[in-house]
């Protein structure tokens, strides 16, 4: 696999990036829903393997985009990383140590930003209360340089671009615009001086006009505060704008990962290639872009899980290259976490371009 | 600014509803079947002259618009007419029955709200658990059971078989005073109060449960968890306050209905409240009493609704500003 991949931006430029969060062998499943009666009779619905073997490192100071179609398991991965879901298997490590013991510190150092800022803010609390909540939970009554709670809140609000901060203290979320609300969410994260922010589709619920501002804000946080950011997005165009590295997910697995320029300019997986084909047409890819039935995590196909929709298989190219049998029947191993450009695909193993 | 306009709008709305109800009350009891005078004549063996005098007394010989004016005047002075049977003022009859009704229906309402909300909260927070499943099905059973039937079962069980509580009435015939009297009334209160509480609990539990389940799925709850807010505080500080808002309307609505009494249960337990008064009045087509009770409960429902709106506006910042 391509070894010439030198990660582009500062975090990984030394070539020896330190992983702050390590995900190993992550599996998250959801019990299928059945009717009340069937449930009483002990029947179980088909189990959805939403995340099915993910290895991933988030390096210090980098922006890593986790991309893929809706339903491929991005949010589930993000929530498991946040310790909000109990995985069936696998481990999350923070600074080299498993989460379990360090959950309290973790909750302070790793903050989450959701897609819908309106839903992420308690409608009955003022902006001040919302931003200060993190401090109160973690019993921080003073900043490292003796700042008062109010000074910390004010600093977080202005860092998030809400200035002058005092003007926002007593407002309620409904009095702000969508973009301002997302800034409040970000301020609530910043007030704790986090080392990591996990942002799940942070701009897809916002007006197109403010998306750029919020993305610029996230990138500024990385530059100025050296916060590592995992951004989940269905939009490869967005990944292109903000990310140092991109991981492309399909049906619970990462199928291609590597430096953003590499993955997006020279994709090696047919799925990434198909996603990129529709990026210029704006509007994102939250709609079916490929032929074949949409992926269903309760029925993961044999062999390469992308084979029912893979253009290389459909066109007969895989057959000509003598890999079709493997595409259909031989499962691919999950990609290991690494800095390099890695691809899970038999075609790519032959050195072929998708 | 916005909040004042909200308040004014709500008050005007309440006044308009009140006027409508008063006028409606007047016409309703004049278009209903059965002529009060005939009933009067039947029960009191009156001569023709007496009947004519009664009609004049009641103002029933005047044209309808004039009757309405008289009725409005009387109503606003608190005169609700006279009982067709005894000739006593309706307001006095109702006043006598108010205390037992407040005692019975008021306490049952408070108890069922308290327990119902607690059950709903606990169930929703451990959705699908043993407590949730058991309480949900039990609530549904009591909620759908006809309350008179439930009352009779409790009478058979606790008054008949076990003999722990009296089967009805407000107090014992013996002339008790002071503490003994209080204990005696509470003793009589127990069974009807239990019946009503059981019957009402389900509604509150179910509404609270579904409201909390909805709030529980919101991202600000997940955000709080992700920040490390302990489960108990997520529930107390974020989830329940938001989930209580929709429940509030139901709570105030129920309080509005307290003074109307509980017709079925008060009758089953011979409880001398407004509900039983209504039941008796229906039997003898005693219109002025029905009219009075109807007016009283409409007014309290409207007032409590207004109170709920005002409180709602105060508690929910989105409405306060809107
Ligand atoms: N709470 C849940 N219960 C059952 N299935 C779920 C739940 N959350 C997600 N899923 C399923 O898991 C799969 C991955 O979902 P998700 O992680 O939300 O995808 P994405 O964020 O990439 O759109 C989907 O098929 C979805 O239907
Ligand atoms: S392994 Fe085969 S089916 Fe899967 S993406 Fe590659 S060529 Fe397509
Ligand atoms: Mg998602």
Which helices and strands, and how do they pair?
The complex is a heterodimer of chains A (354) and B (322).
Chain A: H1 10-13, E1 19-32, H2 36-40, E2 45-59, E3 63-67, H3 74-81, E4 89-94, E5 97-98, H4 103-109, E6 110-113, H5 117-120, H6 127-137, H7 149-159, H8 178-190, E7 196-200, H9 208-225, E8 228-233, H10 236-242, E9 245-250, E10 253-259, H11 260-265, H12 270-277, H13 311-314, H14 317-320, H15 324-329, E11 342-343, H16 346-349
Parallel strand pairs in A: 3-8, 3-9, 6-7, 7-8
Antiparallel strand pairs in A: 1-2, 1-4, 4-5, 9-10, 10-11
Helix pairs in contact in A: 6-7, 6-8, 7-8
Chain B: H1 2-31, H2 36-44, H3 48-58, H4 64-76, H5 90-125, H6 130-144, H7 147-161, H8 178-216, H9 219-227, H10 231-256, H11 263-268, H12 274-283, H13 287-315, H14 317-321
Helix pairs in contact in B: 1-13, 5-6, 5-8, 5-10, 5-13, 6-8, 7-8, 8-10, 9-10, 10-13, 12-13
The complex binds adenosine-5'-diphosphate, iron/sulfur cluster and magnesium ion.
Characterise the protein shown here.
The complex is a heterodimer of chains A (354) and B (322). In chain A, 34% of the residues lie in helices and 20% in strands. Chain A has 354 residues and is α/β, with parallel strands linked by helices. Chain A has a domain at 2-102 and 239-349: Rossmann fold. Chain A has a seven-stranded mixed sheet with strand order 6-7-8-3-9-10-11, sandwiched between helices. In chain A, strand 7, helix 9 (208-225) and strand 8 form a beta-alpha-beta unit. The longest helix of chain A is centred in the middle third of the chain and has 18 residues, at 208-225. The model of chain A is unreliable at 1-14 and 281-288 (pLDDT under 50). Chain B is mainly α. Chain B has two domains: 2-76; 90-305, MetI-like fold (Orthogonal Bundle), CATH 1.10.3720.10. The A-B interface holds A 79, 82, 84, 103-104, 107-108, 111-112, 114-116, 119-124, 133-134, 137-138, 172, 174-175, 185, 188, 192 and B 218-220, 222-229, 238, 241-242, 315-318, 321. The structure holds adenosine-5'-diphosphate, iron/sulfur cluster and magnesium ion.
């Amino acid at each position: 696999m391509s070894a010439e991949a030198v990660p582009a931006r500062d975090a990984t430029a030394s070539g020896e990036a330190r992983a702050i969060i390590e995900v190993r062998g992550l599996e998250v499943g959801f019990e299928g829903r059945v009717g009340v009666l069937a449930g009483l009779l002990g029947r179980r619905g088909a189990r959805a393997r939403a995340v099915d073997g993910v290895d991933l490192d988030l390096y210090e100071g980098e922006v890593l985009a986790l991309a893929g179609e809706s339903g491929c398991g991005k949010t589930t991965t993000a929530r498991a990383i946040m310790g909000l879901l109990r995985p069936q298997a696998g481990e999350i490590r923070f600074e080299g140590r498993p989460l379990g013991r360090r959950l309290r510190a973790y909750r302070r150092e790793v903050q989450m930003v959701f897609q819908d800022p309106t839903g992420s803010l308690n409608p009955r609390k003022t902006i001040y209360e919302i931003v200060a909540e993190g401090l109160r939970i973690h019993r921080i009554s003073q900043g490292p340089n003796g700042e008062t709670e109010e000074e910390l809140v004010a600093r977080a609000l202005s860092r998030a671009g809400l200035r002058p901060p005092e003007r926002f203290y007593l407002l309620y979320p409904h009095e702000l615009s969508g973009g301002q609300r997302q800034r409040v969410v970000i301020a609530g994260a910043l007030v704790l001086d986090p080392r990591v922010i996990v942002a799940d589709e942070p701009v897809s619920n916002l007006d197109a006009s403010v998306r750029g501002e919020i993305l610029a804000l996230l990138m500024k946080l990385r530059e100025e505060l050296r916060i590592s950011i995992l951004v989940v997005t269905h939009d490869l165009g967005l990944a292109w704008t903000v990310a140092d590295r991109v991981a492309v997910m399909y049906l619970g697995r990462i199928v291609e990962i590597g430096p953003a320029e590499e993955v997006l300019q020279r994709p090696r997986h047919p799925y990434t290639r198909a996603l990129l084909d529709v990026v210029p047409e704006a509007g994102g890819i939250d709609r079916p872009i490929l032929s074949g039935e949409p992926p269903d995590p309760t029925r993961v196909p044999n062999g390469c899980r992308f084979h029912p929709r893979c253009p290389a298989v459909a066109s007969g190219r895989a057959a000509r290259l003598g890999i079709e049998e493997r595409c259909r029947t031989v499962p691919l191993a999950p990609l290991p976490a690494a800095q390099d450009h890695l691809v899970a695909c038999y075609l790519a193993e032959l050195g072929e371009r998708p | 600014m916005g909040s004042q306009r909200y308040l004014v709008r709500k008050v005007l709305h309440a006044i308009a509803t009140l006027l409508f109800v008063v006028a409606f009350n007047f016409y309703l009891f004049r278009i209903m079947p059965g002529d009060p005078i005939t009933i009067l004549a039947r029960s009191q063996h009156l001569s023709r002259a007496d009947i004519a005098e009664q009609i004049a007394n009641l103002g029933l010989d005047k044209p309808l618009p004039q009757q309405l004016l008289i009725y409005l005047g009387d109503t606003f002075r608190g005169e609700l007419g006279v009982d067709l049977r005894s000739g006593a003022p309706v307001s006095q009859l109702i006043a006598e029955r108010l205390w037992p009704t407040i005692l019975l229906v008021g306490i049952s309402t408070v108890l069922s709200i308290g327990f119902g909300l607690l059950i709903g909260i606990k169930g929703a927070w451990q959705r699908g658990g043993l407590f949730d499943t058991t309480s949900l099905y039990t609530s549904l059973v009591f909620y759908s059971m006809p309350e008179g039937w439930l009352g009779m079962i409790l009478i058979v069980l606790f008054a008949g078989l076990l003999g722990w509580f009296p089967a009805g009435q407000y107090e014992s015939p013996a002339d008790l005073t002071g503490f003994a009297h209080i204990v005696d009334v509470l003793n009589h209160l127990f069974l009807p109060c239990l019946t009503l509480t059981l019957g009402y609990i389900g509604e509150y539990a179910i509404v609270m449960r579904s409201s909390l389940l909805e709030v529980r799925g919101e991202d600000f709850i997940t955000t709080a968890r992700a920040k490390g807010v302990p489960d108990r505080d997520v529930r107390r500080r974020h989830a329940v306050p938001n989930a209580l808002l929709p429940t509030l309307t139901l709570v105030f609505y129920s309080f509005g209905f307290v003074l109307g009494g509980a017709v079925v249960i008060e009758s089953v337990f011979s409880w001398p409240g407004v509900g039983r008064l209504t039941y008796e009045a229906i039997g003898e087509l005693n219109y002025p009493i029905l009219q009075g009770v109807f007016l009283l409960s409409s007014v309290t429902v409207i007032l409590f609704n207004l109170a709920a709106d005002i409180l709602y506006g105060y508690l929910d910042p989105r409405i306060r500003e809107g």
